[in-house]
Amino acid sequence: MTAPQVSGHLEPQVFADYLARTRWFAGKGRPFTVTDVRTVGEVPSRVDDSPRVVIHLVEVSYADVAAGAPDAVELYQVPLAYYEHPENRLDHAFVGWWEDPEHGWVHAYDALHDREAMACWLRSFDEAAGQEHDHTVDPESMLTFHRLPGHDLDREAASTLFTGEQSNSSVAFGEDALMKVFRKVTPGVNPDVAVHEVLTRAGSDHIASLYGWLDVLDPDSDAVIQLAMLQQFLRTAIDGWDMALGSVRTLFADPELHANQSGGDFAGEATRLGEALRELHETLRESFGTETADAAGLVGQMGERLAAAQTVVPGLREHHDRLAAVHARVAGLGQIEVHRVHGDLHLGQTLRTSKGWKVVDFEGEPAKPLAERMLPDSPWRDVAGMLRSFDYAPHAVERDRTDDDLADAAMLRVRADEWANRAANHFLTAYAGGSLTDEQQILLDAYVADKAVYETVYETRNRPTWVDIPLQAVARIGAE
Ligand SMILES: Nc1ncnc2c1ncn2[C@@H]1O[C@H](COP(=O)(O)OP(=O)(O)O)[C@@H](O)[C@H]1O
Ligand SMILES: O=P(O)(O)O[C@H]1O[C@H](CO)[C@@H](O[C@H]2O[C@H](CO)[C@@H](O)[C@H](O)[C@H]2O)[C@H](O)[C@H]1O
C-alpha cells in the first residue's frame, strides 16, 4: 500500500517559514532546513463544505551537529486544511498556497485552528467507536483512529485551540474532550498514549481518562507513528503551578505572617498531592511491574548528565564536586527498585479538580531520546521533580517583583524558603507515609541534584532569564 500523494507544489520552504513562526517548533534557535515533506494521510469523515484535512510529516535537518547525531534530524507533524479559496477568518493560521494539477488552487491553513477541519477529526474518532477499540477508518491513507470503550463523544462539540505555552497543540471539543496533537513525532509508541492507555484501563483516579488516539503506518520508516491523543477534558481544573503561585502571592502580600498563618497556605494541597502521587506510583507498579537496577549505574548516568550539562552551563563547574558527592552516596545502595514513572513531574503537570489532583503529560523529559524516556526509573525521580517545583514557585514570584525595598526583599526571601520547605515537608510525609528512610533520602537528594542540573540546561536553552533559580539551588546542594 502506498501513501496517497498530494500532487502539486508543496514547497519545503513554505513549511520552513511556518515552523519558524510557531510556539511548538523546538529548533527555532538552530540553523535548520526542511529536507523532506511527506503526506501520510487525509482525515476522512468530511461533510459538505468541509476542507480536505491532510497530515504532513516535515523532516527538519540541523547544520549545528554532525550528520547522524541524535538531534541532527527531527520530524514534525503539520496537519493542513486545504481550501480552494482564501479563508480570511484563518489568516493567522495561513501556511501557503499553490496550484495542484488535480485539485486546482490550494489555500492551506494549520488545521488545528480551523473548526471545520477539527470537526472532521472528531467525527473520525466518533466513527471509530463500537469497533471493539480499534478501527481503521481509512485503509487507503494508513491512518488509524483508535477508541477505548466507556465514553460517548459529543460529535457536535465545537473545537477551541489552547493558546498556552506548549510543546504540542491541544484542542478542546466543547466541554467534552481534549485532543493533543503531537508536533515533534518519533516512530514508535508515544509514552503519553501508552501510559494513559494502561492507567485508564486500570481505572486510575489521578489521570484524565484516555478516549482514543490516532496513529499512522509511516511508509518511510515502516513504523507506526502516534499522531494524536483524545482524552477527558478536565474543564474546571486549576493548574497546580498557578495555584502555587497564587498561594505564594498571598503570603508575600502580608510577609509579617508565617507560611502556616497565611490565608493561602498550600500545605493541605501539598499533602493531597503527595497522596495522589503515592497512589499513582502504586498503579504504575501494579500495571507495568517493577524491576531492580544497579545503583552504581545510576551514579554513572547522573555523572554523564552533569558532564554534558557543564558544556552548556559553565557556571556548573564550580559545583561539580559537591554534586558528584551527592550522586556517589547512591552507589552504596546496591540494587534499587525501578518502574515506569512520569519522568518530568512538576507543578505545571498537575491539575486540581473537584475530585482531587490529576497528573498530565507522561511524555517524559522532552530533551531525552524516546527510547530513554520509556525506561523504568526510580519513583524518587518524580518526587524530586515536585520538590524542585516547590522551590521554583516562590522564586518565580520573587523575580517578578519590581519593589526594590531591601528589608522587604530579605523578609520575602525568608518567607520564600519557608513556603518551599513547608510544601516539601507535607508532600513528602504524605508520599512516604511518614519520615523517609536513609535509603530514600539518599535517592531523593541525588535525584534533586540531577533535576536541578537538568533545569540549568533547560533554562539556558529556553528561558535564560530564569537560570538563576536552578543555579542557586545547585549552589545549596551538598553545602548545607
Ligand atoms: N485533560 C486535560 N484537561 C484539561 N486541561 C488539560 C488536560 N491535559 C492537559 N491540560 C492542560 O493543557 C496544558 C498542556 O498539556 P500538556 O499535556 O502538558 O501538553 P504539552 O505536551 O504540549 O506540554 C497543561 O499544562 C494543562 O494545563
Ligand atoms: O512541561 P514540559 O514537559 O515542557 O517541561 C519542561 O518545561 C518546564 C517549564 O515549563 C520545566 O519546568 C521547570 O519550570 C517550572 C516552572 O515553569 C518548574 O515548576 C519546574 O520545577 C522546573 O523544572 C521542565 O523542567 C521542562 O522539562
In short:
This protein has 480 residues and is an alpha+beta fold. The protein is 38% helix and 23% strand. The chain has a seven-stranded antiparallel sheet with strand order 6-7-12-13-10-9-8.
Q: Would you report the number of β strands?
A: 18
Basic shape: globular
Hetero groups bound? Answer: adenosine-5'-diphosphate, the ligand O=P(O)(O)O[C@H]1O[C@H](CO)[C@@H](O[C@H]2O[C@H](CO)[C@@H](O)[C@H](O)[C@H]2O)[C@H](O)[C@H]1O
Specify the biggest β-sheet. Answer: 7 strands, antiparallel
Give the integer mean of the pLDDT values: 91
User: What's the CATH topology label of the largest domain?
Assistant: Aminoglycoside 3'-phosphotransferase, Chain: A, domain 2
Low-confidence spans? 1-8
Return the string of H and E elements.
HEEEEEHEEEEEEHEEEHHEHHEEEHHHHH
Beta content comes to 15-25%
CATH-assigned homologous superfamily of the largest domain: Aminoglycoside phosphotransferase (APH), C-terminal lobe
Q: Quickly give the CATH architecture of the largest domain.
A: Alpha-Beta Complex
Structural class: alpha+beta
Strand order of the largest sheet: 6-7-12-13-10-9-8
Domain module count: 2
Helix tally? 12
Helix content: 25-40%
For the record, the CATH class of the largest domain is: Alpha Beta
List keywords for this structure.
480 residues, alpha+beta, Aminoglycoside 3'-phosphotransferase, Chain: A, domain 2, 2 domains, 38% helix, globular, binds adenosine-5'-diphosphate, binds ligand LMANGFYV
